[in-house]
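Justification of resources, computational component.

The compute hours requested in this renewal are based largely on the per-chain cost of generating structure records like the one below. Each record pairs the submitted sequence with a full structure-token output. That output is archived, and it is also reused by downstream analysis tasks.
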Amino acid sequence: MNTSHELRRTISTILCTIILLGWSQTAWLTPLTGKQAPTGEIFTSIEQALKSPKKVKRLYLNGRQLQELSPKIGQLSDLEELNLIDNQLIDLPAEIAQLKKLKNLYLQFNQFTQLPKVVSQLPSLQYLSVANNFLISLPKELSQLKKLSGLDLRGNKLNALPNSFANMKGLVTLNLDSNLFSKLPNCVTQMCSLKMLEVKNNRLKSLPLSIKNLQNLLILDIAHNNLKEVPVSLSYLKKLVFLYLNKNQLTDFPDCVLALKKLKLLHLNHNAMQVTAQQKKALSFIPRLDLTTGSK
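The structure output for this chain reads:
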């Protein structure tokens, strides 16, 4: 079975579950606990793992204050999940490239200013989180990861993405929250499989007309930016279920949202616009609606 296809289907199921449960907040999807999740014993040291390397699928080295990762990691050729959260890493050993079966890689809360290019040599990688680091750029080679479905880049210092990311056609979830983007990178609007896009707490001044290309989106969170208007092309996102436009600088009611008949949640609160009684009535098809007025 095509694992990338199955992962996308599972993510879709989870998103539908979120919708049915009526969650009011967007939850970032971390690696799954279903059929796609690596199973087996969790090893907590490389030394322990090397005693039976063929049995090791999961290695958790989080919270160790590691300043470097041992090159011996390359001997764990069957590893599927590697947790390096909350360390002091600024680079990864070249031997990481030997982990051809690695599916999930967690690099949150380290000291990376650039993502090591060796990550681009992990052909089975499906989920990558480099959240809460100090990234100022990303290697263009990352787009070579054809099985990558989930990418978490929140909490860094990014203001652009490589143009090559337009080739990441299999990406289903992308989190760019809390970075320095003043505009949505064009490559993002070419990621046609995206179901979940989070870009809140950036510096966005506008959205490109090409956002209409993301017609598989279920969740779009662009709250807490500097948007003054919403393009009419947003009306093409017919599958959209959750839409967060709150805490921007909108002065006019975005009529385009009236075309989004599958919306279950719309946040327009804390903008500078006034919503008329007629507009409120037109939005009555949306079960969860926040139109609280006032600036952010």
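Confidence is low (pLDDT under 50) at residues 1-29. Residues 1-19+33-155 form a domain with the Leucine-rich repeat, LRR (right-handed beta-alpha superhelix) fold (CATH 3.80.10.10).
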